[in-house]
Amino acid sequence: MNRKRVAPKPGEALRPATRTAAPARQGPGLYGDLVGGIADVLEAARRASARAVNAIMTATYWEIGRRIVEHEQQGKARAEYGEDLLKRLATDLSARFGRGFGWRNLFQMRAFYLMYPPEKLQTASAIYRTVLPDEKLIAADLQKTRRMLERRGLTEGGKR
């Protein structure tokens, strides 16, 4: 039984995308449907939480990279050192947080920030804001057009 994925409304439970196998129908109340429905909800929640965690971790790694670069450069265009800082950070962060903070990973976080500096992290609306006309200009044009149509309607008597 395939179902189309529907985004939940606030306060509403997640709906399943698809079910891999039809549940076995057992006895009154269709217990298999109950189990299948619960499994669908759990799978949808796990997918949603995995996407959220991935987005948060990506933002976290970018922020770690930003902090490393800013510390290295201290206002300069380029840093004079870096490998020693990464090794020291790797030792301290690994001791505190465990795996995942070796100097290679920290180097990649730093490179991630350098590849996507804040100037490149723009939303589509921010990009189009400079291309699209200002809302005030649009409103003024609409007002002029409305007045012109009103005058035409009064002078022409509403002829078409």
Keywords:
flat, mainly alpha, 160 residues
Topology:
Layout: H1 31-73, H2 83-97, H3 103-115, H4 124-129, H5 135-156
Helix pairs in contact: 1-3, 2-3
Mean pLDDT: 75
Low-confidence stretches: none
- The backbone outline, from C-alpha atoms, is flat
Structural class: mainly alpha
Number of strands: 0
- What characterizes the major β-sheet? none
Please report the number of helical segments.
Answer: 5
User: What is the distance, rounded to the nearest whole angstrom, between the alpha carbons of the first and last residues?
Assistant: 56 Å
Tell me the Rg in angstroms: 29 Å
Give the helix level as a range of percent.
Answer: 55-70%
SSE run: HHHHH
By oligomeric state, this entry counts as single chain
What fraction of residues sit in β-strands? under 5%
Can you describe what's shown?
The chain has 5 helices and no strands. The protein has 160 residues and is an all-alpha fold. It has helices at residues 31-73, 83-97, 103-115, 124-129, 135-156. Helix 1 (31-73) packs across helix 3 and helix 2 crosses helix 3. The model has no long low-confidence stretch (mean pLDDT 75). It has a domain at 124-160.
